[in-house]
Structure formats: C-alpha cells, structure tokens
Amino acid sequence: MPPLWLLSLLTMFLHAYLSSAARVQTPMQVSEAIGWSAMNNPRRQMETESCRTGNPMDDCWRCDPDWEANRKMLADCSIGFGRNAIGGRDGEFYVVTDPGDDDTLNPVPGTLRYAVIQEEPLWIIFDHDMDVHLQAELVMNSYKTIDGRGANIHIADGPCITIQNVTNIIIHGIYIHDCIPGGNAWVRNSPNNYGWRSISDGDGISIFASSNVWIDHCTLSNCYDGLIDAIYGSTYITISNNYMEHHNEVMLMGHNDEFLADRNMQVTIAYNYFGEGLVQRMPRCRHGYFHVVNNIYNGWEMYAIGGSANPTINSQGNIFMASDSDSSKEAREDEWKNWNWRTDGDLMLNGAFFTPSGEEASASYARASSMVAKPASLLTDFNVSAGALNCQIGYIC
C-alpha cells in the first residue's frame, strides 16, 4: 500500500492542478457485472453501496463480506482486453496444503504445482500462509485461477510463474518477488505431458503465446528479468490493481521487433501503482495495441512508457509524478517516429511531460481502447489498495 505521506503529497498536487469543476467532469460508473447473494438484504446492500470507490473491478466484488463463499464471482469482474478470462470459474476448488516443490516431474498432491497442471478447470486457494520456493518454472495449464485471498502467499527466491501456450488464466492476490532463472530440468505441464526446460529468463510472470489472461491485485518486485512480460503472440490481457516496486525492466510487451505476430496483441494496463525504485518499461511495447489507463506513476529513473516497432499506445487518465532528477522528467521513452502514441487526460506532476506522436484522431486508437477512463483526479482513492489485499473471512476485503 502506498505510504500515507505519498498520498498526502499526491492530494496536494491534485488540489494545486485541478479546479473543483474538473473533479466532477465525468460521473463515476460502478460495475453492475454481478449480483452478490448479499444483495437480498437491504441493509447489506446499503453497506455495499457505501464502500464502493468507482474502481469497476473492485466494486464488483470487494464490498461483499461473504467473498470467501462467493470467490468465483471474481471471474466476472475483469475489464479491458482480458475481460473474458474466466480462469477456473467452471471447475472445482482445489486447496493447496503443502508449500513444497520437491518433484517437478511428478508433483505431490496438495502442492501448487500439482494443482496448476491438471487438465480440468480449477479454482486454486490456500489453507494457510505460505512461502512457495519453486525448483523450476511453475508451468500452468489452461483454465486455472490462483486465488491468494485470505492467506499471505509469496512465490519468491526461485523460478516463478510461466503461462505458456494456454488460455483463461487468473492470478490474484499473491506476492511475487526475487524471482531468478531456473531450468535444465524435467518439468510436467499436464498429467500426461512433460518436457525438458532450458534456462528461463527469471520473470515474475512470463506470458508466452497465451490469451485471455488477467493479473490482478498482486505485489511484484525485484525479479531477475521482467516483473510481467507478455510475448510471442500473447493477447487479450488485463494487468490491473498491482503494486510494483524496486525493479529495473518492469514489463515487456512483445517478443522482438521482427516478430510480426505481436501486431495483434491487445493489453490493458489499468489501476496499477508503479512505486519506488522502478527504472523503465512500465510498459515497453512492440507492435500491438496498448491501453494504459488510470495508473499512478511515482517516479522513474529512465522512462515510464516506451516502445519500438510501431505500437499504438493510448495513455489515458494516468498520474505521472516525475522524480526530482532533471534527467527523468519525460514520461515516455525519448525514441519515436510517427507512431500513434497519445496522452489524453493524463496529469503531469513535478515537471513530468509526455510527447505525443502520430495521429490525433480518436479513430486511430480504437483498437487500443478497452474501457472508459476515470478522471486522473480520482486516482488516489482507486490506487490506495493496489497490490495483494489483506482479506479476512467475514469482512469486506
């Protein structure tokens, strides 16, 4: 969670930059995506209405004190390009009881690795707090949700998560940090298939040739390569409500400049908090279409948003607060031609600036538009709870 002093500082900047009229230029739209069982109780409905903030994903589920009984409702709450990711919604619950990972070829029942390789859809939860130290990449099968709510779950100090050649994945509410390369090992990716894995990149979450992926309310930091990378034709992805800090190359979207299949990539990056100690790639995009919307950037050492190979980047309703360094004021990478990169309703603080390029017409950004942006002035309320949440059973989360 961002420190109180930073939120106070942001609030002072906002008051200095915005008039009261600007703060109400767009009414908040709350999500009506699901109806909780709690809605049958008028008193509960009043409590639910009062805790909503305008963050459409959170307002869809967080006000329900029975969230633990209604866990799968989360699958109906995504927005953006990854909105159709259902994860393990249509399957059974699987409870992880063992944090171990001693056998990557024949995983032990009760472990996280055993759960994620199964063929059937599964909604994976945890029966207690766990530090999971993986011996090799956690290679996931399709239609899986990893749901850390109600427990303190860390995947750290080893290889981390790989989403490769699969679809419909939700990862929610876990800490991912200090990930390192792993490999030269036999790793099972389904009950009937395994393969030899060479050395991995050391990403926190690696999305490779996969679709319909939603990464939400995770806290990520200090990995060997990227925190979240999406490459090799991956698409229909939403990365939302995450807290990222202390890392160099944060997010890479696109394999390389010559890999033309990434032209179809569509990624939404929304309501994230880019915190202290971040250097670059928030994200860096190749080819494709990227909606960067309603995020808070608390400084950067090189740049916040960058890219190559003619990506379309639609930056809307973000707060860019530059660091005090005179050499780190530009929010976008200082390398562009006539690519379609725009800033629309972004709030530039402490000398930050963003140089748009390419077409100005809204039609040019249609494929990079995935949701309605809120006014940047509202973001201190939205992003105060970015990252993994401290959800307690019987209370709103």
UniProtKB/TrEMBL annotation:
SUPFAM superfamilies: Pectin lyase-like. Residues 129-326 form the Pectate lyase domain. Pathway: Glycan metabolism; pectin degradation; 2-dehydro-3-deoxy-D-gluconate from pectin: step 2/5. One of its GO terms (biological process) is pectin catabolic process. Keywords: Calcium, Lyase, Metal-binding, Signal. It catalyses: Eliminative cleavage of (1->4)-alpha-D-galacturonan to give oligosaccharides with 4-deoxy-alpha-D-galact-4-enuronosyl groups at their non-reducing ends. It is an enzyme of class 4 (lyase). InterPro entries: AmbAllergen (IPR018082), Pec_lyase (IPR002022), Pectin_lyas_fold (IPR012334), Pectin_lyase_fold/virulence (IPR011050), PEL (IPR045032). This is Pectate lyase.
